[in-house]
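I'm curious: can you give me some protein's one-letter sequence along with its backbone structure tokens because I've never seen that pairing?
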Amino acid sequence: MEKSRMIKFPCHGDERGWLVVAEGGGDIPFEIKRIFYIFGSERDVVRGRHANINSEFVLINVAGSCRVRVLDGLGGEEIFSLDSPHTGVYIPRYTWKEMYDFSPDSILLCISSEKYDPCEYIRDYDEFADMMKGEQYDR
């Protein structure tokens, strides 16, 4: 399976300011079907707390900062710090994600490969871990 990883986006600038480009199927490793963003979360709030069967994500903190914890259900864990508008983290399907430690000005842009479908969400970590240990999922 693919692993979560940091992505650095092309950043172009001059005396007028900066422009960051992220194209679906290129900089974003999938075709984009949905975009949403999270803002106004307190520092001690944890968002996410789920895995997805079909959806892949790229998360970009376009303002402020936050952390993203990803777990593979088999004991592997990685924490990414998002604090730059020209970097993001790629999260493949079947990856547990938790977003937390939001700065007061955080705006977390979430780019998804799929439209929202509540049936593809795994919201119980123990169920997710059992699923991954038994490899009862469609690679």
Remarks:
- The two ends are 7 Å apart (CA to CA).
